[in-house]
Amino acid sequence: xxxxxxxxxxxxxxxxxxxDAQAGFERYASDPEATRFLRWRTHQSAVExxxxxxxxxxxxxxxxxxxxxxxxxxxxxxxxxKPWGAISLLPVxxxxxxxxxxxxxxxxxxxxxxxxxxxxxxxxxxxxxxxVSATCNVRNAGxxxxxxxxxxxxxGTLRSRYMQPQAGPRPQDVLQWAIVRDDLPADASTG
Length: 191
Fold this sequence. Notes:
Residues 11-175 form the N-acetyltransferase domain. Keywords: Transferase. This protein is of the alpha+beta class. 26% of the residues lie in helices and 30% in strands. It is built from 4 helices and 8 strands; from the N terminus they run E-E-H-H-E-E-E-H-E-H-E-E. An 8-stranded mixed β-sheet has the order 1-2-3-4-5-6-8-7, sandwiched between helices. The protein is globular, with a radius of gyration of 16 Å.
């Protein structure tokens, strides 16, 4: 459904693949701080990351979830780029849910915002998608700022919504963010 490769000024977003597992493990999946507010546990081995990535490949093929590796174009030839994070869209009926994780080494550089804007733009290429949403833990100010910079509006707080293993043993409160096709300038909403 979605493009396997998306390019921005600084980034190459390409379909995540199992061969990315070692770099993904080292750069973000094993980092408790980078994964602090995710719905999956911090990975303890590259094998765990590889299993996760293989499932992402199967999900892409099935049209369930689309996960892109977030790569920095400045690091060389496209086929050799390794991920500094991952970003996903989960399409459900007329909407798509956005999610992402970025290596701490790339925080504060605009990587998450640039990747999210590109993936949201990709969603708008599909006329059946009318809403792109995302959630972030109420304590995750950095992620909230990324979503705001992408043009999303804060819709409210969902209490005890998701288990986020690193954030504690109870379901966490999250902020619900969204942008709808009607929020776009007339020339941008046609895809």
